Amino acid sequence: MQRYLLALSLLLPTACMAANQPQQGYFAKRAEAALAERFSQADSNKDGKLTLEEAKKGMPRVAENFDSIDTNHQCFVTLEQLKTVMATRASQKS
Asked: Residue 74 and residue 50: Cα distance in Å, rounded?
C-alpha cells in the first residue's frame, strides 16, 4: 500500500499538468485513473462527492486540506475539484 501511495504521489503532479493538454502521456493517464479509483473507493455512498468524513476514512491527505479544496464551501469536494487543485499546485511548483 505504501509503495502504491508513493508511486501515486510521484505521478499525480504529472497527471495534473497534463490534464489541460489534449495528448496525455501514459503515466499521466495512469495517475489520473488511480486518483479516480481512490476517489471512488472513498466515496462510500457513490454520489460523486466526498464529505469530510469520507475523506478522513479514504483520502486522509484530502481531509487534511479539505477547507482549501472545498472552495465553494459546500461541505463536499468532487473529483474535478481535486484535479483542479492538484493542477494548480503542480504549476506553482514548476
From this structure: 11
Per-residue pLDDT of 36-71, as tens digits, reads 999 999 999 999 999 999 999 999 999 999 999 998
Give the chain's end-to-end CA distance (angstroms, integer).
28
Long-range contacts of 16-25 (CB under 8 A, 24+ apart): 16/83, 16/86, 16/87, 16/89, 16/90, 16/91, 17/87, 17/90, 17/91, 17/94, 19/83, 19/87, 20/87
76 C-beta neighbours (distance < 10 Å), count: 18
Distance, CA of 92 to CA of 6 (rounded, Å): 21
